[in-house]
Amino acid sequence: MSLPEILLWQQLRGSPRGIRFRKQHAAGPYALDFFCARANLAIEIDGLAHDMGDRPARDEDRDAWLRERRVETLRIPAREVMTDAVQVAEGILALVEERLMAMGKKAPPSSLRDATSPSQVDGEDLSAGPPANEPKERSR
């Protein structure tokens, strides 16, 4: 992880406001900087290299691939994270909350879950444990 990614992860880890994020999340042929499965949102921190060479075209291809799987991409310049990681994290949390409200608090299924780990539709939610009517899984 780059320094801006580390700074942002320090703000997003631990499920702030009950919102869970994954870092360096595998999605088909890509690794997403951060991913919020409940909101079908990928978060990419873009340094200067993202403006050079064929990188803009590659980023567009990646965003299109994710969009086909109903995952939107939020691109944030690394310099913004370096300036104020707390403010950037607050903006991300506000966007996720807006998306969840628009979705009725439950994300629609994403075909990304076919290529990655389970999403909210497979049981990931805000609770710290299983629903009250389900027994906790026993460790072996």
From TrEMBL:
Pfam families registered for this protein in UniProt: DUF559
Q: Which InterPro entries match?
A: DUF559 (IPR007569), Endonuclease_DUF559_bact (IPR047216), Restrct_endonuc-II-like (IPR011335)
| Source domain of life | Bacteria
> Can you give the residue ranges of the DUF559 domain?
3-96
Sequence segments annotated as region (Disordered): 104-140
PANTHER family found in the cross-reference section: BLL0828 PROTEIN (PTHR38590)
Question: Under which name does UniProt file this protein?
Answer: DUF559 domain-containing protein
